[in-house]
Amino acid sequence: MMGHWIIVPVVLPAVVGAIAVLALRHDLLLQRVFGTASMVALLAVALALAANGGPEAYRLGNWPAPFGIVLVLDRLAALMLVLTAFLALAVQLYAIGTGWDARGRHFHALLQFQLMGLNGAFLTGDAFNLFVFFEVLLIASYGLMIHAGGRDRLKAGVQYVAFNLVGSTLFLFGLATIYSVTGTLNMADLAVKLPLLPAGDFALIRVAGVMLLMVFAIKGALVPLHFWLPATYAQAPGPVSALFAVMTKVGAYAVIRCFTLFFPVTLPATGTLFADLLIPAALLSLAVGGIGVLGARDLGRMAGFGAVASMGTLFLAVAQFTPAATAAALYYALHSTLAAGAMFLLGDLIAARRGSGDLGLDAPAPGGLLAALYMAAAVAMAGLPPLSGFLGKLMVLQATLVNPGLYWTAVLGSSFLMVLGFARAGSALFWKPATAAPALPQPLAFCAVGLLLAGLVGLTLGAGPVTGWLAETAQGLHAPAAYIAANGLEGM
Questions:
Q1: Which of 327, 323, 424, 437 is CA-nearest to residue 382?
Q2: In this structure, what is the dihedral angle of CA atoms 130, 9, 219, 289, given to the nearest 10 degrees?
Q3: 432 has pLDDT over 70
Q4: Phi and psi for 361 in degrees, rounded to 5?
Q5: Cα–Cα distance between 246 and 239 in angstroms, integer?
Q6: Cα 375–376–382 angle (5° rounding)?
Q7: pTM of the entire structure?
Q8: SS (H, E, C) 365-413
Q9: 186 neighbors 259 (Cβ within 8 angstroms)
Q10: In whole angstroms, what is the distance from residue 172 CA to residue 380 CA?
C-alpha cells in the first residue's frame, strides 16, 4: 500500500514550482538545484509507485467515490509517471547545460507546474479533474512555449492555445452531456453505470464519446486535428519541444484510459464506433507525417512531422482495443517519446552550432559527434533496426486484427518516407567539409541526449521483460474489475 505517496507526484512539483516563483525567482542557481533535486526525487517516487503496481485509490478529504476527488494508481498511471519523470530530468539537464533556462523568466517554475498537470492527468480517477489537469497543462505549456520571446514564437503560441481552447470547450460539452445522462463523472462509476443505460440514452452517449475522442485527438495531434503541432514544435525552445513529446502521449493515454474503462467496444451504446473513427485518422497521420518529414526544410518541423507519424502508429495500435495491441501501443509510446525527445534536443544543438535549423543554410558541418548522435536518433524515429522503434512497429503490426495488408503498407510506407527525409537532412547537415573546428556540445547537454538514447537502448535490450510487464498492464486495462474495486464501487 502506497498511501499518501500516491499524491506526491502532484504535490511535489506544485510546491517546488511555488517556491521557485515566490522565494527563488532572483536566484537561478538555487532554482536549478531545487529543480534538479525535485526531478530526481520525482523519478524515484515514480519508480516506487510502478513497483507497487496497484490499483489503489487515494481519496482526497476521505470522501468515498463517486462523491469525492480520487486519484487512482494502477500500472498504466505508474508507467506514464516514470516516463514523464525520466524525460523531464533529461530536459532539466539540457536546459541547464545550454543556458536555455536563463533566457527567460520562470522557466523552472513553469516546468514544475507542467509536471504537476501531467502527473495529475495520469493519476486522476475523475473525468472532470482530467479536464482540470488538462487546463493546468495548457497554461504552463503556453508559458514554456513562448519562453525567451520572439514574434514567430508568440504567433505559434497563440495558434497552439487557440486549438487547445477549442479542445477544452469540446471537453466541457462532452462531460456535461455524460453527467446529464449518468449523474457522475467518476471513471470507475461510469464503467459501472454506462452498460446499464436504457436504449433511449444511447444517442447522447455516442455524441459525448465522439466529443471526448475529438478532444483527445487534438491533444494527440491526430490528423486532421494536428495543425497546431508542426509550428509549435518548430518554434518552441529545444528543451520545451522535447518535453512536449510526452504531451501528445497524454491524448493517447486518455483514449486508452477512457475507451477501455467506460467506453469499451463491448458497450451496447457505442460498440466499435470509436475504433472506426480512429483507424482512418491514424492511417492519415502516418501518411501526413511521413510526407512532412520528407518535405521539411527545417529541423524543428522535420522532428514535428516525425512526431505526427509516430502518433499515427501509436493510435493505429490503440484503435484495435485488444490487450495485445494495447501492450504494443504502450511499448511504442515509451519508444516514441524518448526518440522524439532526443531528436528535438539534437535539433536544438545542431541549430545552435550552425546558427539556424534551416536545412538549406550553407553552414559548416556541425561535427562528427553530433552526426553520430543524429544518426542514432534518426534510426530510432524512423523505426529501423536495431533500436526499439523497429520492435515497437513490429509488435503493432503483429497485433492488428483486420486489414493487416493495409496497415503494413501504411506503416512501412511512412517509415520509408521518414528514412528518406532524415537521410536527406543528414546529407545537407553533415555531408560537407567542416570549414571551422567543430564545437562539441556542452557536457551537460550531451549527457541529457545520451540519457534519452540510453533509454532507447535499454528498451531494446530489455524488450522481453518490458513487454511482459506491459502485457499484464494491458490485461488489467481490458478487464477493469480491479480498478473499479479499488474505488469501492464493486457492489454498485
A1: 424
A2: -160
A3: no
A4: -70, 130
A5: 12
A6: 85
A7: 0.94
A8: CCCHHHHHHHHHHHHHHHCCCCCHHHHHHHHHHHCCCCCHHHHHHHHHH
A9: no
A10: 37
Q: DSSP class of residue 200?
A: G
Q: Which residues of 70-84 are buried (b: 16+ CB within 10 A; e: fewer)?
A: bbbbbbbbbbbbbbb
Angle between helices 368-382 and 299-318 (to 10 degrees): 30
Closest CA to 291 of 309, 317, 311, 316: 309
Q: Count of alpha carbons within 13 Å of 28, Cβ hemisphere only?
A: 11
DSSP string covering 317-353: HHTT-SHHHHHHHHHHHHHHHHHHHHHHHHHHHHHHH
**Residues 104/148, Cβ–Cβ less than 8 Å:** yes
Listed in order, strand segments (DSSP E) in 210-347 are none
pLDDT digits (tens, 9 = 90+) for 344-393: 999 998 888 887 778 877 776 677 788 899 999 999 999 999 999 999 99
Query: What DSSP element (H or E) covers 73?
Result: strand 70-73
349-352 contact pairs (CB < 8 A, 24+): 349/98, 349/238, 349/441, 349/445, 349/449, 350/299, 350/374, 350/429, 351/238, 351/299, 351/300, 352/98
Compute the distance between CA of residue 303 and CA of residue 10 in angstroms, rounded to an integer.
30
User: Are the C-beta atoms of residues 71 and 10 closer than 8 Å to each other?
Assistant: yes
